[in-house]
Amino acid sequence: MDTYRPPLRDVRFVLEHVTPLADLTGLEDFAHADPDLVAGLLEEAGRFAAEAIAPTNREGDAEGARLVEGGVRTPESFQRVYEQYVAAGWGAVQHPAEHGGGAFPLLVANVVKEFITSANMAFSLGPLLTTGAVYLLQHHGSEEQLQTYVPKLVSGEWAGTMNLTEPQAGSDVGAVTTRAVPQDDGTYRITGQKIYITFGEHDLTDNIVHLVLARLPDAPPGTKGISLFIVPKVLVEQDGSLGERNDVEAVSLEHKLGIHASPTCVMAFGERGEGAVGELVGEPHEGMRQMFTMMNDARLGVGLQGVAIAERAYQQALAYAQERRQGRAPGAEPGVQSPIVEHADVRRMLLTQKASIEAMRALCYANAHALDLAHHADDPVTREQQQKLADLLTPLSKAWSTDLGVELTSLALQVHGGMGYVEETGVAQHLRDARIAPIYEGTNGIQALDLVGRKLPYDGGAFVKGYLADLRDQAEQLPEALAGSIGGPLTEALDALEGCTDWLFEHREEPNDVFAGATPYLRAFATVVGGSLLAKGAAAAHRALDAGETDGFGADFLQAKVTIARFYARQLLPSVHGLVGAITAGQEDLYAVGPEQLAP
Amino acid sequence: MDTYRPPLRDVRFVLEHVTPLADLTGLEDFAHADPDLVAGLLEEAGRFAAEAIAPTNREGDAEGARLVEGGVRTPESFQRVYEQYVAAGWGAVQHPAEHGGGAFPLLVANVVKEFITSANMAFSLGPLLTTGAVYLLQHHGSEEQLQTYVPKLVSGEWAGTMNLTEPQAGSDVGAVTTRAVPQDDGTYRITGQKIYITFGEHDLTDNIVHLVLARLPDAPPGTKGISLFIVPKVLVEQDGSLGERNDVEAVSLEHKLGIHASPTCVMAFGERGEGAVGELVGEPHEGMRQMFTMMNDARLGVGLQGVAIAERAYQQALAYAQERRQGRAPGAEPGVQSPIVEHADVRRMLLTQKASIEAMRALCYANAHALDLAHHADDPVTREQQQKLADLLTPLSKAWSTDLGVELTSLALQVHGGMGYVEETGVAQHLRDARIAPIYEGTNGIQALDLVGRKLPYDGGAFVKGYLADLRDQAEQLPEALAGSIGGPLTEALDALEGCTDWLFEHREEPNDVFAGATPYLRAFATVVGGSLLAKGAAAAHRALDAGETDGFGADFLQAKVTIARFYARQLLPSVHGLVGAITAGQEDLYAVGPEQLAP
Known about the structure:
The structure is a homodimer. Helix content of chain A is about 55%, strand content about 10%.
């Protein structure tokens, strides 16, 4: 039942009609990434994900990662699959050619990420963190650090990790206390404990490059006193060969709700001596600013997890609904049980999943598209505008896609009835796995504060208002045939969203009024953006059908795109109107009761 | 962290001001249940739940139920706690005095159920099923069956089960194929397999009384050919002593997402010989009708699970939010981390939980109140009206409370950040446990169809419309001070709900148009009823504060009740407006695409 088929046609539709890959391949940096090459790459990635990785998902969950003498053992199947991953160079897709990468757009790399995450989310986390490490070193590492670490990280021969969190420093990264003491030889000695370190220790690579936030002895308090260090698991000799084992180890693993095969480690630095040996990255006290370099990409990567797991669970629910027979649907032959997909309520659940997934995917791809243009567009004005757009879309991609990731995997479970609650069916694992994504890489509450506190104020609000005005123009320019069923609901939702946006600006002097509505505002905003992107796709599908140019997609497929967008516009998008009350309520009721009044 | 405090004051407030216990204690049947006696009973139940049962929750989950040689072993702690449960007579609270029960209103018994379920949902399921068995036998058993089985079930000395589901017969109960063959001695031989049988086998009692749906050889097809049988695990001799072991056994246990300590059994009847010995209950082919006797009570019991688990998870989240410090809230002292409860977004999460739980609890208690009046009111007109009300509220209680049970435990997990994802914290278990409730005892999709298909048509629609008109009257009669902040949003939500109700009636000739909107309609309906009940409580609290009569509750508590109702009215209730689109969209988009168009 729980097989996975990469949604290649859905993806190709987005890349052609919603977030055009052609916008990127016209740029000098991506001139080599022609559509045929990309299509072949994605097909190959899809095959690898479906055939090699997907079958490891259930067994990896059951086996889990285990702390053993000398380190952490990942599930047996992971080693074989990881070798294939490295051999094929799947970790290198988005990295620059000079570091051994494929120099493809992030947009393309993210499709590969989506497929691999759908196949096995726990497995995908190692490579995700490695990518983050590469980014940081690319932007802030010295030439020597680049040469020593980056090619092996790009190839996947070595893995990377991010060591940020400590017990007292979660969302509040500024509270980090891990210490770094400078040595005469220019290195540093790192001492402290980090928690929740994904793939902090494992048996997939010869070396692990830990990127660690710590404080120098003279560091000012808070986020301004945090520096970034490289702490390799095994020290690297001048000639690039592996030397002594560094004083860093996983001292325990968390027993988690899901992603059992991903080792979540408590890491101890310098427990056996004077500290783990580290190298400073860039300048002292610049750690927080440096982390922001990879923030958009990392958060978008987590948003994609929501899309990926929801897609996997949806495919399973759809297959089950076609096979499972119960009751008789209205109009069906008497005396024969109908496949449950024929029941209206089951269809509603499936369409809700499908439409939401397509909206989330389009949002995440639009976000990657903006990041690609921000980094590679020819003119600086475009780069600046696209960077702002990416900054705006990132909290939406991360929070909305991961909240929906949980809701939609839960809906997929519901389609299965009692079978869904039985672990062997596999769909419950998707819910368990999906549940981490609203938490890590900045909780979804933090994303909402980022949206209202940092992103809305861009250009005194003009940027966001201009973006919403663009969405309105697009809604008004939909083909006549879609104006009523899609354009109408979209315009009404935009009215509501713009009203809420104005309200938030009017209350900007009272941070708690704005923060009180941040989470429902983020949801409303993302719901509208998702609807706009689906409408854009529907318009393209409609035009193609109208012109009889259905080649490559087929009329049935294009017709479904229109229906899915209409379903979303009529049934899901109006939820925005139900959020207005919560967005504009302000802080009053929240603070009218104290915690003691809320206790039993 | 994960301690449990029975919300005695919240419960007492509902029983005094929202779903008055006094309406029941005025009746002859309940004259003995005076408020002081009830208060003492509930306090004792709360203490038992908190002190004896609640500590078994985590360890029960970790240990789980296991299939062993000769049967099923429940977690060690269960045997001790179950003995105490039987000794105190907690299972007898709602049953009639002539069967050894306490003859208390269901309203009171449900409070006890709520406390025990909050303490340990897996443990609570055994007694829940036993109660269902008692109901069935009370209503349909022969005098001899009553004498043989009921007193021991009421006391808890023996346990009961419900054996309905088979692989091909889940929601579609009419597809049952288990066979019952009459014998010359008046007994029957039962052969077949049942799945998902909660507490189908265990080590807590000497005997287990299985109630089994099966078909007689001459049975017509479908639901009209199903009969109900008693199949005891151990046959009972004439003198009431235990005799031979019957041919019924658990052949495997499901490995589930949650409620690990509750054995979910595959039951085999008659595998070792000519069939398990059974007794017919009532007349042949009456099984389905008989099951309906206990349907409202059983479904309400499951709805209460949503309330109970959400309450337990909420208490844990609130405690964590007061203890955990991260970041600095606006206006807080610089350089000191604030308890996260001071952050607006965390307050929003906590208030959402608290307000929703209070609304769900009020709904479930209102449902019990209606059932009590339906069974015990003096005049037949009241009984009939209250039966209809209970029938209407039951799908709301079951589906809404269990959907919210999942959403709110997930929100409680979110409050914990990374800690929430770690199993040792305990809050993830609440989400895992809560996830079954939208599935069993009629999936929530089935509840929605019940609402629109069976309940809306009562009296040609006049009953539901009259009920909504009553809610409107109440909204309009709120005290002046609450008219704007609570009465206004409530009236607007009622407008929307009445509009949707009219739409459903107008489309009643097209079942799929009605079914397509059933789930969002149920949600909207329950959201409004919940808001009405909170408003009723707020009005009482307001009047008490106004009159300075805060005795027993305290001004802080009453003030919080007003705030919570206002928060709900302003922030949660408006979600109804976001559901109108989905309720009134009809079947068009659902059936405009075939399953093959939805596949990747």
